[in-house]
Structures are given as structure tokens and as C-alpha cells.
Amino acid sequence: MRFTSLKQLSDLCEQEGATIGRMMVVEQARETGQSEERIVAQMASYYEVMKEAVRKGLHDDTRSRSGLTGGDAKRVRESALSGVRPPSLGGEASAALAYALAVSEVNASMGRVIATPTAGSCGIIPGVFVSSQERFVWDDETLVQGLFAAGAIGYVIANNSFVSGAEGGCQAEVGSAIGMAAGALTEMRGGTPEQAMHAVGLALKNSLGLICDPVGGLVEIPCIVRNGFGAVTALAAADMALAGVRSAIPSDEVIGVMLEVGSAMPEKHRETAKGGLAQTPTGRKIMKELYGKEGKS
């Protein structure tokens, strides 16, 4: 890739008069030797999987094998559509929340998802993308280009910090997905590459320090609800960036801080289930019910 930072990516887009998504297609074709058509077709197939995961999570049984999670996406969506109590978020953000939960529940129930950038954070981008497509009546091509934009952002984060909870905590997993979704949505809504980068910085700053503490060692509690909250955060970051709000700390520096914080994070807070929510009295009880023994810190 001809870019290793978000600043370089933004500058490259400006120099060549291209969107982030378009630039990523060109760079990937150049690096892999594959045709742009084949690369775009592959990404389009990924988006189909995302849409199907949203549908499945809203309409099928998503009870996980552990029995700990499932059905919350349906509850949130049905409540929003019932008219009994209008969602505090409003219909559009509520849809993003429900769709993100839906995909995460499909993942927990051993369904098919796309890791964006990981399975543990797989609901955020589909939640934001599918709900936005419905709201703004975008064609699939727009969303596919958005996925390339998200991929470019994720590429920079992965190569300068972390994207896995085991390495850098949930800030790296869910946080990265929020930044990817926020930047891509900013671009799809007509924002400049520079505005998209500010959206990434704004999103990542709000996720710094988030630990990875899966109850029972499973990607269910609190992972699924964090995906739901993450989708809403991505919408907020995109709106701020499009309104002209800037990240006072450059996004690349925020990524550097995520690396610093993740490296300093205790092992028990990095996907080991030895700390955080996993070691609360209820967390230990769940561990004992699942495995016949309590987890120890």
C-alpha cells in the first residue's frame, strides 16, 4: 500500500481526486495483481453475508449454545416498531442498534458473519451500513465502496496498533470497528477524506481504555451489547465530523495512544476472562454453571 497512516491516505486521496473507497480498490488491485472487478465482486459478496446476518438475527432463533444470549435484537426492533414507546434514539439509530445486536447474536449462535475487523466486533459495520442503506435508499454499490473505505481505515489501525481484544483490549476490537464504520459512513454521506479521518479520531477517542472481559470466556457478554452501543457511537462520530467537528488530536496520534494503552493493559483485561465483568460474583457463577468451576483471577 502507498499509505501507512490515515494522514497519508487522506493526502493521497486529495492528490488523486479519489474517495477512500476508490483508493483502496486501486491499491488492493495493484498489490494483489487481481482485477478491480474481481476485488469489488468479492467485497460485494461479503456485503451480502452481512445483510443476511442482519435478517437472520432479526427473524431466526439466535439463542447461543451456552444459552446466555439471543433474542435481544428482536426485542429492541419490535419495541421500536410497536409504537407503544418510541425509542429514545429515534427510529434510525434504533435500527442501527438492533441490526448490530442481530449480527453479533448470529455470531454467538455459530452463524455466518464477516469479521469486521474481528468476529467479536462483527455487528458494528453491518448495523451502521444496512440501517443507513435503508434510510438513505443507497444502492449496494455505495455500500460496497463504503466497505473498501472501512477496510482502508482498518488496514492503518491494524498496522499501527491492534484490532484484537487479546492484544489490546476491547478498545482495539470494538473501538477499531467503530472508527472504521464512522469514517466510512462519513464518506458515504458526502464527507471529504479529511472529514472521514476526523470521524475516526473522534470515534477512537471515545473507546480508549475499554477492556476485554468476556464472561465465561465467550464472545457474548458483554461483547454483543458493546456492538450495539458501538453502532450508535459510529453514527454520532460521523455526524460530528460532517458538521465540521474536528479531532483535536490527529487520528494517527489517537491510534498511537490506543497502542500505548493496550500495551499497558493488564493481561487479565485482555480477553482472558480473568478480570473485569468475568470476575464479578455473577460472572464467576456463570463460569461455574458452564464449566463446573469458578474462574480465578
TrEMBL record:
GO MF term (any one): L-serine ammonia-lyase activity
UniProt keyword annotation of Metal-binding present: yes
A Pfam entry, by short name: SDH_alpha
Cofactor(s) listed: [4Fe-4S] cluster
Cited InterPro entries: Fe-S_L-Ser, MmgE/PrpD_sf, Ser_deHydtase-like_asu, Ser_deHydtase_asu
Domain Serine dehydratase-like alpha subunit residues, every copy: 17-278
Catalytic activity: L-serine = pyruvate + NH4(+)
Record has ATP-binding as a keyword: no
Pathway stated in the Swiss-Prot or TrEMBL entry: Carbohydrate biosynthesis; gluconeogenesis
SUPFAM superfamilies on file: 2-methylcitrate dehydratase PrpD
Keywords, ordered alphabetically: 4Fe-4S, Gluconeogenesis, Iron, Iron-sulfur, Lyase, Metal-binding
Entry EC no(s): 4.3.1.17
Region Disordered: start-end pairs: 58-85
Lineage top rank: taxon: Bacteria
Similarity comment: Belongs to the iron-sulfur dependent L-serine dehydratase family.
NCBIfam families: sda_alpha
Name of the protein in question: L-serine dehydratase
Organism: Cohnella suwonensis
Native organism taxonomy: Bacteria, Bacillati, Bacillota, Bacilli, Bacillales
